[in-house]
Amino acid sequence: MSAVFTSLPGTALRADARTSGSEALHPAAGEPPVKAEVEFELAPCTATPVERALPWTRRLLDNAPLRRAAILAALALVWELLARWTDNDLLLPTFAATARAFAAGFLSGELLEKAAISLSLLLQGYVLGIAAAFALTALAASTRLGRDLLSTLTAMFNPLPAIALLPLALLWFGLGAQSLLFVLVHAVLWPLALATHAGFQNVPEVLRMAGRNYGLTGLRLVVHILIPSALPAILSGLRIAWAFAWRTLIAAELVFGATSGQGGLGWYIFQNRNELYTDRVFAGLACVIVIGLAIENLVFATLERITVRRWGVQR
Amino acid sequence: MSAVFTSLPGTALRADARTSGSEALHPAAGEPPVKAEVEFELAPCTATPVERALPWTRRLLDNAPLRRAAILAALALVWELLARWTDNDLLLPTFAATARAFAAGFLSGELLEKAAISLSLLLQGYVLGIAAAFALTALAASTRLGRDLLSTLTAMFNPLPAIALLPLALLWFGLGAQSLLFVLVHAVLWPLALATHAGFQNVPEVLRMAGRNYGLTGLRLVVHILIPSALPAILSGLRIAWAFAWRTLIAAELVFGATSGQGGLGWYIFQNRNELYTDRVFAGLACVIVIGLAIENLVFATLERITVRRWGVQR
Amino acid sequence: EGQIRIADQFGIVYLLLDVAKDQKLMEKHGKVQGLDIAVTQVTLSGGSAMNDALLSGSLDIAAAGVGPMLTLWDRTRGRQNVRGVASLGNFPYYLVSTNPAVKTIADFSEKDRIALPAVGVSVQSRILQMAAAKTWGDAQHAKLDKISVTLPHPEAAAAISKGGTEITAHFANPPFQEQELAANPAAHVVLKSYDVLGGPASATVLYTTEKFRSDNPKTYRAFTAALAEAAQWIAANPEAAAELFIRVNKSKVERKLVLDIVKSPEVQFKLTPQNTFALADFMHRVGAIKNKPASARDYFFDDPHNAGAN
Amino acid sequence: MQSHEPTAATPAPLLRAEGVSLEYTAGERVVRATHRVSFDLHPAERLVLLGPSGCGKSSLLKALGGFIAPVEGRITLDGRRITGPGPQRVMVFQEFDQLPPWKTVLHNVMFPLLASGQAPRAEAERRALRVLEQVGLASFAHAHPHMLSGGMKQRVAIARALAMQPRILLMDEPFAALDALTRRRMQQELLALWAQVRCSLVFVTHSIEEALVVGHRIVLLSPHPGRVRAELNAHAFDLESVGSPAFQAQAQRIHHLLFEETAQPEAATA
Amino acid sequence: MQSHEPTAATPAPLLRAEGVSLEYTAGERVVRATHRVSFDLHPAERLVLLGPSGCGKSSLLKALGGFIAPVEGRITLDGRRITGPGPQRVMVFQEFDQLPPWKTVLHNVMFPLLASGQAPRAEAERRALRVLEQVGLASFAHAHPHMLSGGMKQRVAIARALAMQPRILLMDEPFAALDALTRRRMQQELLALWAQVRCSLVFVTHSIEEALVVGHRIVLLSPHPGRVRAELNAHAFDLESVGSPAFQAQAQRIHHLLFEETAQPEAATA
Ligand SMILES: Nc1ncnc2c1ncn2[C@@H]1O[C@H](COP(=O)(O)OP(=O)(O)OP(=O)(O)O)[C@@H](O)[C@H]1O
Ligand SMILES: Nc1ncnc2c1ncn2[C@@H]1O[C@H](COP(=O)(O)OP(=O)(O)OP(=O)(O)O)[C@@H](O)[C@H]1O
Ligand SMILES: [Mg+2]
Ligand SMILES: [Mg+2]
Which residues span the membrane (chains A, B) (predicted)? Predict the structure, then answer.
């Protein structure tokens, strides 16, 4: 604030230090025109938003579900053409054949049942994995030992394939759902912990300070400041973890097998693959895809809309 | 700036709108003490940083490699005890036995050779996957269709296990390294694209505007503004992708197998597992872990130190 | 005692177990011994998962190829002492090729690709090595490994049936080999496992730890008795057995294919292991197992039905 | 309506805002930032946007920069509608985080010169070092932005814009975070630069005095939503005339215009 | 050294900075922000830190807040060394991004009250709405921070701090982004609040006038690295005395103290 300049003699003195600048200040030839001064009496403003009529093409393009449907249709078409062109229905069935097998599996209830088994396992593993990831990252956020632990453990265990855990899982949990859960947690924990940790580290220092200022420490700081602020990173971690939980589940159901016909989608795929019903294999995979799309659009996109997008954190 | 208050009569008038505030301004009893005014003549400052002698315990704890080594030692100890306690060396060999097998494999050159084969494949797949991920996210960053494409494709393909791609890989790439690369790209592409996209969306709007202001658009904006700014998220994506590339490679070598004894670490593990040389299996896994730790500490941590940490983006 | 957890894998080779389980034969024979047996059946996807489960104590009876059983016997000797319980029957494995130039294994060229499950380790791979050893001598037993590729049966079967890939041969198992031969007119048999092993041979065997057998003698007896009854029943009722397989496994394979296999003269459902020693001897010769078995009775338990094991 | 000596033939304006309304849509809420704002910017003119907090000054500047599009009215540059940002209209933003944190101070200043292809590397570095000297940050040339104080960051942003020597310079409260002394030095530097390159300048400030010193002409905006309350001349004033009677009179006039406007709500809260 | 009428028995200070040096380590570089700064803050005293850009005002305030630890000297509160931040010392930061973007304006203001357990939800909401009214943002109570202008964000941060009614209020250039009018209103509100709760205040500003109006006592800092140049009294001045001869004299004195200090580098750049 240059308040004091007004009446300080020193100020005027200092100002001619830059005479070149001062000279140019006096309007002269070649200067911008000197216009009349105007004042407007302003009526109280009734600022109604302007109606904007968009052309229908634009409105069509603005419709996100429509655009996505178009993408899906295009993919289906490519698939169909590719399958027809390779003409090897044991390796790559057509889209139409897969759709038929999907419909049949759906109507007979078999696919639904298998999907339900897989989903229920998956959700359990996912939730457990999330809990473990948050425990680990919360620790890493508050102590240096936790940070070292996180970075060392993830670097060590994240690259390990599930089969590496098989002996341990069998020793501790035996055959069955618990071992599968163990493997699922392994799939969810590390990527989510990595993403969350990166998100935490990226929280603006001043937000962190504001939180600490109000007496938040440890877990409360994590819950009230770090998690909301790192939500975009966490969301991407959750998406990745979700996908990997699926991948792992499908693969692990083959290894751990099924107890008395209780197999899920992975088992369905495995069995049909062994019987060379490739269309059903693809129907099983399509089921995974459909669930993936549903979760993405119903859960993750919604979550994103009501949180980060609304907060203006993410565009 | 309240410069003009100084001489404006209106100002003084407005000020007594809050008489309660004004009254309290005059020092009175119970007021803070009125102290003497002081001025200091300041000698030119030769601000040498203060020497801070830290106690040796503190210095020891400040040594990151040491702390990590301690964690690793603790883990090894837990392993050894666990293995001795279960006493089932076909399922869980002791740390010592594994170390012996590792040393033997290392000295005979077998492990090194296998690791080299795996690493070379892995790196190729990783680089290809990164390129694909950046292409996809760059597209997503600049066009809405790209954004839809990214979110739809990742939601669809990310959950698919590698075996789902086996038939396609066989048809398109045949047996051998190319199919493995295809699967590796699948493992790297989606998580990296997701993480990078989340990072891009999180770039402060004003940085984006600054970039556009200087005429950066499309790819140049991505390279000069979005990528550096989203680097923490990208780094976490790279870490996750790296780990998943390993997992996938190991698993895929089992499924796709090896042509004419050219198998890598996955094959080494698979074969020894089939032959119940469990100590060698764990030596193979240990090799994965060692490579993981080396990459984490040599590549990723260094990358982090010379970029985001130095920039003060991440603590 | 009173509880048994059995693993099987996927396929018609495990028909004996399916029958025993479906007709509650184990429970029935348990009653005879005065025992209520609780049977748990788990389906796993491969030999090594099977071994891990058995060793971890999550499983009582495992079922896999002769090869994995021999390996496990070798490694656990003097410790858990895993040995064979019984055979699940004799099944032939065919090496099928679509390359008309290949009549015997000696005709394979550099351009051919033989698909196998687990090159160098699986039963099919061992048999191929034995055949190679017979053709070119023991030192050359791994000669064909160079053109072998590891590929799961379904994909290999798809490749042979429809062509379009580099794979020109597949050492399969039932029912894939039958499907391939039916689907592709160019597909023909190059080698049969029986020719290499010296006659009809046990393909898949059941095995367990010594501890289980000695701790649960009654359950063990009930189990083998149930298997024996199941074998008789299948021999007597092949049609019903085929139906049962389709029902129990919720299989969608054509009934005719199943029936053809069950009825095939090359397939026998019996408990007594047959022609396993040749393989064991070969594996010892090439160093895959360290202990040299004197006869098949070394790696099968001393049970009445194993008396004639060879 | 008051009016002073109108000039006869004014040359074509460089930049024209005609009835510009700006709106933000956030979920269901539509916030109108400015309402039908019109003004002209002539070549080499220094225009100041002055108004209370939240009246839409930053929004208007962003619209001139081409970052947001008006929902009503139009903004033209040389008669052509503005469709996006460009290096000829360089902007200094109000936010502290406008400096890419991964570049040192020096590279931050060089960056736009290189990115817009305006200067080769050596020349860019020379120019960057010179402007950094001008804003008093030469010794921090190799520091990263997170090592700077708020005011220092803003000075780097100013240096970056000055180094570009654009046709139109858009500055959003560039000196708000600076102390009296630094601020005056920056004003001097700005005016000196203007005297050299004679670019057009749109300058947002909330200081009446600064508006009079920096501007040729002042566009006075009403409180939220921003509308043009008055257009006043300030070409007669410079740093030397601060405190002169004419200066004081004009300052007072602006003050009254702002006061009048807000007397109602003020009374309500007081 | 000048000194005015010294007082005899001063009560024990609430907050004491004794020879505080602050440093930042960035890689190999060590930047010294302040050098052996000492001052006292008494209960109900309003202390102003005044100094040029980059002299370490923000750093000093953060040290008082307990966010950074001095490398030399010590800071004590009630005689006890400060080990970390606490809700009794509430800080208004200089940065615009100090508001959690996931909370509405209202919840932003309520948050510290709830987090520190100072008020139940209903009471917190009541208090929050009242201070929002005071800073003129009642109508934006349900907006998210990204929908606010820079000045509005700072006002929310101020409201948040005022609602807390802490023992010590630490404010870092809180009014820098505000226009003349809003700024004066905020000054009034601050002084009114002070009169009610009589908390201690440490106020960073770069405006000499504001320092005189707001402060009882002014700690004048030298340019980088910050050292105490002088401690001056301002308890005699308030909003009404702006422009009085005594006020002008003190302002001029401060101006000279700052000038003198920087005459050398200034001449070099000009
Ligand atoms: N991203 C946004 N989303 C919604 N509303 C916004 C956004 N940015 C600004 N606004 C609204 O637009 C109006 C004008 O904001 P703007 O930032 O242009 O004000 P300003 O004049 O620059 O104020 P200040 O002097 O405080 O910086 C404000 O009422 C604000 O609430
Ligand atoms: N995070 C940091 N890392 C390194 N140096 C820093 C950091 N923050 C501030 N500094 C340095 O410390 C000194 C004082 O900074 P500080 O922010 O305290 O200044 P200030 O008085 O608040 O300035 P302003 O009025 O511009 O906000 C500056 O020289 C700055 O370069
Ligand atoms: Mg603004
Ligand atoms: Mg500061």
Answer: 90-109, 115-141, 153-174, 180-200, 221-242, 248-270, 282-303
